[in-house]
Fold this protein.
Amino acid sequence: MAKIALGTWSWGTGAAGGDQVFGNHTDEASLRPVFEAAVNNGLMLWDTATVYGMGESERILGRLASGVERSKIEISTKFTPQIAEIYENSVERMADASIERMGCDHIDIYWIHNPMDVERWTPGLIPLLKSGKVKRVGVSNHNIAEIRRANEILGEAGFKVSAVQNHFSLLYRSSQRGGVLDYCKENGIEFWAYMVLEQGALSGKYNSENPLPADSARGQKYNPVLPQLTALTDEMKRIGERYNASCSQIGIAWAIAKGTMPIIGATKEHHVIEAAAAANIRLTDDEVARLEQLANATGIDTRGDWEHPME
């Protein structure tokens, strides 16, 4: 299993695109150096979704990946129930559209993005696995009961949940408290952690004097609590000095120390280079505990409105 995946949530513009969610303005030209930096640093596992920019993220990734031998790159994308009507409420039709947008012949891992109805949507993964259009499947934003049920449904057809992708960061460890991490470990299921750096709030870059883009969804969510993060990010920076690493790299290294694979949003070359280097950092148990203690002291709950409670 790769130690780090690169995320494209903030790629492209439009509905649920990088401009609205992150305050970014990215396109294929600006992202090409990012993709090339990933290739040069051996990071070839990419995560996207139909809903990111309503297909634009997938289109950009597909065009950038077109020059890479297919066997050298892994592509992860998602079926999002909230927009299923656009694809005639068919998991397979949404997957086919993703394949067409990305110009590839298969998806390496395909996810049910949100557990709106586990009984309804999970069976739609089975024909994709049988046809070979999808190599592996996972579930995202599911709690332990929903993961177990999805695994049962797939198991009846001889398949299984290969991976779980949930929000997991120093500020949001609900998947650990709710038993999801233990379940994944016990059942040989990968755990992919997204929002490890809380959309940049834990990068050490932002504070009250230098807030996140005010007109973005992330700015509206995190700017009011930036003062509460100071003690935590200061400690991340102090630990980083011991490893010649940035605050962001310590956040990534923490997620790896917890046995997860972080998905790191990549819109600039340095995001990729830092992520690759962070995979080599080994935090001590004491450092992990200290960071979690300070994170608990913030009193911040960063659960998204799309997320089911994990506990």
User: Anything to note?
Assistant: The beta strands are 5-7, 45-47, 74-79, 107-112, 134-140, 163-167, 190-194, 261-265. The mean pLDDT is 94. Residues 138 and 285 are 30 Å apart (CA to CA). The domain at 5-200+248-282 is CATH 3.20.20.100 (TIM Barrel).
